[in-house]
Amino acid sequence: MQKYRLDTIPREVARNRLLNAVTFHPRRETVAVIDARGRVTAGPVNARRSMPPHPAAAMDGIALRTKVTRGASPTRPVRLREGRDFTYINTGDPLPENADSVVMIEKVNILEGGWVELVEPALPWKHVRQPGEDVAAGEVVLPAGHRIRPVDQGALLAAGVEQLSVLCPPRVAILPTGSEMVPPGLPLQPGQLREFNSTVLAGFLEECGAVPDCRGVVPDREEALREALVSAADRCDILVVNAGSSAGSKDFTPRVLAEVGEILLHGVAARPGRPVVLAMIGETPVIGLPGYPVSAYLAFDWFVRPLIRHWYRSGAAAPPPLLARLGREVQGGPGAEDFIRMRVAHVNGRYTAFPLARGGGVTMSMVRADAWLRLPPETTRLNAGEQVELEWVRTPAEIERTLVLTGCDDPLLDRIGAMIGRLSPGWSLFREYTGQNEGFDLLRRGGCHAVAIQGDLREEGYSGMIRIRVAEREMGWITAPTAPEPVSGVEDLIRSGLRLINRPPGSATRDRLAQLLDEQVGGRLPSGWERTEGSHWKAAASLAGGTADVTVGPRSAAEAFGLRWRPAWREPLDLVLPRSVAESEGGKALIETLRSRDLREMAAQLGGYDDSRAGEIIDPPFAKNSEGGRWEL
Amino acid sequence: MQKYRLDTIPREVARNRLLNAVTFHPRRETVAVIDARGRVTAGPVNARRSMPPHPAAAMDGIALRTKVTRGASPTRPVRLREGRDFTYINTGDPLPENADSVVMIEKVNILEGGWVELVEPALPWKHVRQPGEDVAAGEVVLPAGHRIRPVDQGALLAAGVEQLSVLCPPRVAILPTGSEMVPPGLPLQPGQLREFNSTVLAGFLEECGAVPDCRGVVPDREEALREALVSAADRCDILVVNAGSSAGSKDFTPRVLAEVGEILLHGVAARPGRPVVLAMIGETPVIGLPGYPVSAYLAFDWFVRPLIRHWYRSGAAAPPPLLARLGREVQGGPGAEDFIRMRVAHVNGRYTAFPLARGGGVTMSMVRADAWLRLPPETTRLNAGEQVELEWVRTPAEIERTLVLTGCDDPLLDRIGAMIGRLSPGWSLFREYTGQNEGFDLLRRGGCHAVAIQGDLREEGYSGMIRIRVAEREMGWITAPTAPEPVSGVEDLIRSGLRLINRPPGSATRDRLAQLLDEQVGGRLPSGWERTEGSHWKAAASLAGGTADVTVGPRSAAEAFGLRWRPAWREPLDLVLPRSVAESEGGKALIETLRSRDLREMAAQLGGYDDSRAGEIIDPPFAKNSEGGRWEL
Prior knowledge:
2 copies of one chain form a homodimer. Chain A is an alpha+beta fold. In chain A, about 25% of the residues lie in helices and about 25% in strands. Chain A folds into 5 domains: about 10-25 and about 170-310, 3-Layer(aba) Sandwich (Molybdenum Cofactor Biosythetic Enzyme, Chain A), CATH 3.40.980; about 30-50 and about 135-165, Molybdopterin biosynthesis moea protein, domain 2 (Alpha-Beta Complex), CATH 3.90.105.10; about 55-130, Molybdopterin biosynthesis moea protein, domain 3 (Molybdopterin biosynthesis moeA protein, domain 3, Beta Complex), CATH 2.170.190; about 325-395, Beta Barrel (Beta-clip); about 400-633, D-Maltodextrin-Binding Protein, domain 2 (3-Layer(aba) Sandwich), CATH 3.40.190. In chain A, strands 29, 30, 31, 32, 33, 34, 35, 36, 37 and 38 form a 10-stranded mixed β-sheet that branches. In chain A, a hairpin with a 4-residue loop joins β8 and β9. The relative contact order of chain A is 0.08. Chains A and B meet through β10, β11, α2, β15 and α3 of A and β10, β11, α2, β15 and α3 of B.
């Protein structure tokens, strides 16, 4: 294994170096206007015909010569005869020979026998569209480099243009690398990984008007990569290699690129996405993207999109930033920009943004991200409460129809997010496991709409809160197949020495477990006490994967992974939300979901829930030891 | 011809009436994830496999058991041997059996002979991605009703999902009506019109995820329409009829709809787009759109788009409004909403919006529109200077890269807009003919970037202005083929009695003409003195179309339409812009265009221009009778 240093070139400098190295000569082709949506004009397009081609009625009414209406007044109306003095005409119809005005039908007094009466004179060319009023032959309809929209197609056809010259899209090769990578559709052997970045990158390319050319997976041999690069450079306008751009032992992409072409740079001062490599093979630019999905997608934005705009000679079209308040402090590293995935809560008309999990490989975080926050290199920290400009991923309208549910973790709660949009079109739900205390803290600061709570709790100053039952859930000991015996209590746990996955600090389940350990084994802590996973479900996944032996969680999580489960206690699982939220459109959508048949079906399917009071309002919302309390099975 | 009244039902009420009448049962189909971009999930999609499937390295480095590093410190480093104590590992690789930590390569001191040294102990599960860390088997990856993006495809493949159930798109019939309408591609006979609305509507439908089914043109016979409706209702989920919804003599769509189905309403309280008809044929909704393009597109937005969202059970996704200041007062009518096409100037960081021409049939205005302004029914007027919320058509980023050029009218100036984007990618130019005085007024109020001027003029307080030569142009008398003799002066004009097309009040050409009439024919005015067209080019188009006989304009306009032309005078054609604009990115793009070979080629192609000083700075910018003056040929 060798270590080598990446460049730390500012992103802007890197992009300019790339664009300056490239001279594209886009091909052109002639297409029918009816097939031209989304294409980019190769040159200005002029009208071939005037629209309207002839003087035309701009209103439904009668066409006539103005002179026949001379002197008309309410006291001396003028009588006109159809055929001789006027013709009925519809909007858009050509004006008859000699007519020079249209009187709208509302001003025409229709009499018997083909006669009409007017009480005021017509004005010349009134309600008449002149030839070329919309567009005159020879006028410019579209400039060069214009991406054609449906309304442009309409204007072109109206202007007599049936075909036009457009730029051919650039052909972009996508070369996935890695002997362990298997394309979608083929079976996976142990140790192999699904190659999905090509699919994502191909989608991005199609969205920005390029034609992806997905090549087969290139195995980890320098010779194979060399051949693949040279052959793709022959056939394509841009090459995207994924991955092999970082500094691991198999990352020989830079070395091979230096052999068959010329390296422009290796490494930009931006995180994640830093280990990108830019090169030229002859006239063809090559972008070596990092393998981690989020890094790859960012580096695609930084270098591949600008290349495609360069091809079309079009400008960037970034939407206006979303202004939000930071709900939590954000940290970056020194010496480089940081790009941070954010989730955004829209509560009481204010946007509040929170950083998402930052692991570069987390594909789900890209699904969940609402926006990006960029920290410039000189900024390593922004405090909660600061105003920030975000680049949105989901539109503000989507964000405004997203409920944020924090608090305790439960698989059934996760399912609510998958159901709410079906019952209330357009609504979605974002789940974040924060524990109850942080959940209430967020609720107070406008960072969420509702908090999930388990068991009973005392809450001071709860006026204005509503508490709604989701279900009662069965909690218990979940044991992995690695353990000889299932654990069914704290004594078992300590005696066996099995490796625990705990809940994070601040979680009610963790507190409950600590209490049991205090009561039953004198406070001794099991192995793994400090190890936590993101959720009960993920803890069960880790048990199934063999990296730990036991956890405490809901029966549903155990059943999903076929793990052994022994009951510990039952507890209510409720949502708490401010009355103002409950009465809002989103709050109603949430409550409707809790009361739906879908929720009950899902609870039954997961197992371990009693939904007999689902959707009931629990009053008072917080209590000392009321009916909402926790009890042993 | 009969007159009948349209309903004036508020748009919101009309839409709800339609949506309440419709119950869709969208079909489902299974598609491969790699083909699923843009499709909408039919139900929640859960992970089939955990990602990562096994504990994996989160960093390049060495994998080991933490216990072998116990006690390591700078003073007492621990030496480890490859194979026995550790394995080199790359990011993403599965952790070897028994390893429980990864030490990043940057912290490994590599020695000779397969030995390494560590100066601090490794922490359990550090730099290890747990199974399911990204997504655990059974977790919800996507909710129901979610439109699939490339990043979603990535997450689905990572989660072991290769196929999924999606909603089939609704099939929407487009029925164009009108015996005079001819589809694109077929030759036009006199009196026939190109049917282009179907192409526009089909593009809109594809953009919002529906499948357009473009039917042939339905001739103006009730029976033909009846048959077309019934047959389309049989095969499609939604019917769009265009047009026949207004109250002209051929507009029997409502009557036929009432026979074969049930009318929900005919007419909404919104302009333009008011004469829409909504109906049901059995279970199938029918939207009768007005024929005027702008009205049709608005009514499409109001009723067809919501139906398609209803099909997918998805929410509206309107972008945030663009906040702008009104640059000119805006008037609406009473009793209904008004939708007004706006152009938006971005000058010195401020958005200023101006209404565009309002003729409903003007397809070019849809090409030129930057945004929509909605006036509620109770608002009939907004004053210049008021703050308004606009719905953008072009993105704010596009608007920010658009130069607005007002002032006098000239065909060569129009061509600049078609060239600027080729020389300066992303930049475009919006031309508005305002005359010079209003142009300067707009310049002062931030409504434009530059003013085109002709001839010489005095301008007080011009400090900070730059004037740049475009060309000298030849102005003269343009005579239509309808006239027996070409006109070559004001005496000719008065003597012949030919019909003039004049320039609008405030135009320098009109003033010049008035002066000549005063000097040579004692101020007598020719026939048509008050008739104007939007531009020299459009005036020439009207002459070619036979609705007038003579105008004064540049040689280029005459030549384009093959009209006779007699010289009158030569004059300089210049641009005036503030120094701050000239030094901005957009100003530089404009000046570069004026100095380009493209401009000279275009001037030569149009004819009637002397470009020998094109791009020169004229100093001083304004003068009494300097070299910039106007003189006879």
